[in-house]
Structure formats: C-alpha cells, structure tokens
Amino acid sequence: METILELKKVVKKFGSLTAVNSIDLKITRGEKVVIVGPSGSGKSTLLRTMNFLETIDSGEIHFEGNPCGYIYKDGNPVLDCQKNLCALRSEIGMVFQQFNLFPHMTVLQNVMEGQVTVLGKSKEEAREVALQMLEKVGLSDRATVYPVTLSGGQKQRVAIARALAMKPKMMLFDEPTSALDPELVGEVFDTIRSLADDGMTMVIVTHNMGFAREVADTVIFMETGDFIAKGTPGEFFSAETQHPRIKEFMDKLL
Amino acid sequence: MINSNNKLGKSGAFASLFLLFALLIFPAVSLAAVDADALLKQARDALTIGQIDQAQSLFNQVPAPGPDGDDGQFVYSRMQLARISYSMKDPGKAREYAEQVVVVYPDNVEAKNFLTSLDRETKPEWQKTLEDCKRFMPNLLKGASMTLLLVFFTMIVSPIGGLFIALGKISRMQPFMAISWFTIWFFRGTPLLLQLFFIYYGLPAIGITLSPLAAALIGLGINYSAYLAEIIRAGIESIDDGQTEAAKALGMTYSQTMRRVIIPQTYKRIIPPIANEFIALIKDTALVSTIAMVELMRAADQMFNAYFNVTVLVMAAVIYLIFTSVFTFIFEKIEYKVGVYERR
Questions:
Q1: How far apart are CA B94 and CA B89, in angstroms?
Q2: What is the pLDDT along chain B (344 residues), one digit of tens a residue?
C-alpha cells in the first residue's frame, strides 16, 4: 500500500517536557489509525504535528512521499512559508474536540468558507458541495441556522462536513467526542464510521476503546511521548497479546 | 442804579436795534441752533442735579429742525427724552419720542435701534428666547456641521488606523511592534490638546505648515486610532485560539484568518467600547477650537462673548446632546445587528 503520511523521528518539546519523543509512523492510503492513551501522553500533540499546527523540534514529515512543511537550517526544522503550509493543510482535514465552528457564519457558510476562501471556488459551486456534505452528515435541514442553535453532536457533524468539503486526502480527529454528552457520541461515531466505510484515510485520537476496536486498522497506545504498543485491534485487545500497561489503563477506564 | 440804567438805556436801545438788524440778516435756523444749544446745556445741567421734570421740559422745547436740518440737537433731545421715559418705566412715552425722530429722519440708526430694543423689551420672555434662537442658529449650525465633519472623519479613519496599530502590536515583526507600541504610548499618554498644539503650532518649525482643519483631522485621527487600537487588540485576543486553529486547518492564510474569521467575531465585543470612545470624540472635537477652528463650541463661545446671552450655550448643549443621542441609538442598532448570531 502507498504511504500517504510518514513521520520520521519526530520530536516535539514544550520547554523541558518532551511531548512527542522521536516517533516514527507510516500511514498508508485508506488506513484508519486510532491513537489512545492517558491524558498528557502527547497523542493530541502528535496529531497536531501532522498538519503543522504544532512545529516539530526535529525529525521529518513526508506527505505523499515528499518531505514537506519544513525547511532545514543546520539540520533543524524551520516552518516552511505560509503558502506551502496552507496548501498542505487544505489537503488534510481536521476535526477538533471543541468543534471550533465559526459562530458568526451559518452552518452552510461554515461549510462553504474554506472552499471559497482557500480553494477559490465560486459561491454556487461551494454551496452545492456544502449541501452534499451536509446531506452526508444528515444536517441539510439545518443549513441556514447559526451554530449556537445546534447540539454538540450536530456541531461536530457540521465540523466534519466543513473538513470534508475541502475534499481532503486524509482526516485528523482530535478527540471528536470528548466534549459531547454521552447520548450524542453515537451520532458522531456513526458519521465517522460511514467515512471509514468510504475508504477515507483517518487518524483518530480518542478515549473510546469500543470505537477504536470497531473502526481501527491500527491501534497505537501512547504514553509520555512514546508508542508503548502498536498493532491491529485483534492484537491490541486480546488478553494474550495485550501489553500489561494497556491492561492497567483499560481497567481504570471501567 | 436808575441813572446808569437810563444811560445804558440809550446805548441798550441802539444795541437792540443792531441785534434786530443782525437777526434779520442771519437765517432763522441759526437763531434756533443757538437757542437749542443753550437749551440742551440747561437741560443737561438740570439732569446732573436731578431735576428731571425741568430737564424733560427743556429737552421738549428743542424745536423740530427746519427744512435744512440742525446739528443734531433735535435728535439728541428726543433720544434723551426717550431714554428718560424708558428709565421712568414709561416705554409708551419712550416710543413716542423715538418715533418723533424717525418721522423727521427715517434712516436714523440710533432711533431705530432704540425702537428695536424697545420692541424686544416689551415682548414676553418666550418670544425673546425664540428670537435669540433664530439669531444664534445659523452660526451654531455652521459650527455643528464642522463638528460633524470632524466626527465622521475620525469615525472612519480611526478604526482603520486602530486596526493596523493593533495588528502591528500583536504581530511578531519587530519594526511593526515598535511603531505600534510607540504610537499607543505617545498618543494615549499625552493630552489631545497638547498634540493639537504640537501639530498646528509645532510642526511649522520643521517646515510643515498645516491648515487648522488638516491639523485637527490629523490630531483627532491619530489620537483616536491609538485608543481604538487597544480596544481592537483586546477584541482580537479575546477570540478563542480554536478559531485560528480551525481556520489554519482549513488552509487559510494569516490575513484570510483575520479578515474572514477573527475580526468579524470581534465586532460584537468591541462595538460597545468603541461607541463609548466615539461619544467622547463628539465632545473632544471642542478641543480643536483652540487651533483656530470654528466648530460648535467655538461658535457658541464667540456668540456668548458677543452677546453675553446664556441661551447660546444652552443651544450648543442641546445640539451636543442630539448628536450623542443619535450616535448612541445608531451604535445600539449596530451592536444588535452584529450580535445576531449569538441569539438562539
């Protein structure tokens, strides 16, 4: 399988704290990677390095086979020019824990915004795509309202539609259900699952083990910036092959 | 005594004849003039010792001028009588005397002015006030339109200037940060009055001479930009970082993020404090009167000093209140409109 995104010895530090500790990771096209782990383990930070919201301290990121996002001065990575970064980011969709919908735009405008501003599409074209995406997440009837009137689950589905409208090559989900009431988690996971069924490449950071098991091709357990374990859901969750630290973590969750 | 009288009698009779002869030769007017001067002198003397009745009757004896006019004695006497009557609380009589003058000299300014002010005096208070208003209004409106010009200009320029200063201050580029920091530090840290003086009186020293209007516009523009910059900066920084991240993740550039996502969200938060500044601005325009600009305050001040009439100050206050009320109303409407997305 063709590798879409590759991290090579990626390090991210916050002061003296190493959040991401020399991580190597290959994500192939269509793969669903789920990253789990305790709070402060660096999983969100790792995810955010993938679309350059966090600037790495060393290492390389390759997208579709080419090193990108950074230029190297004396071997140290320095963020590339804005133009290149924006082009890269527009190909990688991201969904945030706090939704981060634009509150001053209607649902439809939220989904159109990136297409018009970044991709330079006409409004008519963007509206058509936006309505398709809202249809996909089951919210075409809420197109004209402002986000304030939506429930958390609806907001997150709009956020997914907003990212999808850019026709991204892969999607990043940063704890997409952590800010939701338990009864709203299902609708968001259903949406993500249908994306997975369409063959979208995805990296998902979550605490929901059930969902990880169900949707993942690869599950990664991360702690203090390192990968403790990585494998298929079968390896990851079966009692014989399970890493003792993961068992301990999962026992705490219950 | 009798003898000498007799003696003088002859020469007296001779003198009388001579006088009669002289009088025949001299024009009658001349005689009247001499007569009138004497009368006026007596009348004034009577006035100085308080014999007002006597003075009035003497003034009254000054005859109307003949066809060739006189040297002003008639006008003087009648106007004196008019003033005396007025001070004796008899405006009707006073009017009669002044009108006597107007009958003879229809263009006499003194009599006409007297009649005008007499008209004013005898009018009811409200009518007088109304007339004051009519009299002061044109100049006040001229001043008010200048005030409005200053206000509108500053309202357009300062948010733009303020935005750039704010963006400079939150940028990570040293020169922009430094310029922004200095502008805010200097123009917020010194009185507007001093800045206006500096621009209007100080800049000519380095070869830049500005008209009062240009100096006023520059001073108000920069000063208010500096104030608004801090409000706008606070507005931008109050927007959740998640918004910037979401915009970035879509691939937006910094300027697209600011223009499309961040700045529109600041409106709701910065409009109340900006409205506050603009209300202060309406009143601060009064300061430019110190650099030879005639705006509302200066116009009111000039007329107040000329007429010593408080009405003009009250009118100016009312015009300022109308301005501030209208702008308050407009800003409330705008605030409601830009916040519409926050209402469920």
A1: 9
A2: 444 444 445 555 555 555 555 544 554 444 444 578 888 888 888 888 888 888 888 888 888 887 777 778 888 889 989 999 888 888 888 888 999 888 888 888 888 888 888 887 788 888 888 888 999 999 999 999 999 999 999 999 999 999 999 999 999 899 999 999 999 999 999 999 999 999 999 999 999 999 999 999 999 999 999 999 999 999 999 999 999 999 999 999 999 999 999 999 999 999 999 999 999 999 999 999 999 899 999 999 999 999 999 999 999 999 999 999 999 999 999 999 998 898 87
Specify if A213 maps to a domain. Answer: no
Residues A34, A216: contact at Cβ < 8 Å?
yes
How many structural domains does chain B have?
A: 2
**What is the β-pairing status of strands A32-36 and A201-205?**
parallel
Spatial contact of B149 and B163, defined as CB atoms under 8 Å apart? no
B/e letters for B163-198, b = 16+ CB within 10 Å, e = fewer, are bbbbbbbeeeeeebeeebeebbeebeeeebeebbbe
How far is Cα B70 from Cα B85, in angstroms, rounded to an integer?
24
What range does the domain containing A157 cover? 101-168
Q: How far is the alpha carbon of A10 from chain B, nearest alpha carbon, in Å?
A: 20
Interface test with A, best of B250, B252, B261, B266 (most A CBs within 10 A): B250
- The complex scores an ipTM of 0.93
Cα–Cα distance for residue pair B311/A26, rounded to 1 Å? 84
Task: Answer yes or no: is A150 within a domain.
Answer: yes
A-proximal residues of B, 314-343, CB under 8 Å? 340-343
Q: B109 with B135, same domain?
A: no
Using CA atoms of B291, B292, B296, B299 in order, give the dihedral in degrees to the nearest 10. 140
Residue B16 neighbours by CB under 8 Å, 6+ apart: none
Residue B264 has its nearest CB partner, among A83, A86, A104, at A104
CA atoms within 13 A on the CB side of B124: 2
Tally of structural domains, chain A? 1
Show which of B62, B90, B122 is a domain's final residue. Answer: B122
Report pLDDT digits (tens) over A74-113: 989 999 999 999 999 999 999 999 999 999 999 999 999 9
Question: Is the backbone of residue B193 left (phi > 0), alpha (psi -120 to 50) or beta?
Answer: alpha
Q: Which of B305, B329, B301, B325 is nearest to B315 (CA)?
A: B301
Which of the listed residues B70, B87, B122 is the one where a domain comes to its end? B122
Task: Decide if A217 contacts A232 (C-beta within 8 A).
Answer: yes
Answer yes or no: do B57 and B139 share one domain. no
Which chain A residue is nearest to residue B264, measuring alpha carbons? A104
CATH code (residue B217): 1.10.3720.10
CA-based nearest distance A87→chain B, Å: 6
Kindly state the tokens that stand for B294: 């005639």
Question: Which B-chain residues 249-268 have CB contacts (< 8 A) with chain A?
Answer: 249-254, 256, 260-261, 264-265
Name the phi and psi angles at B63, rounded to 5.
-80, 160
CA distance A237 to chain B (A): 33
B245 contacts chain A (CB < 8 A): yes
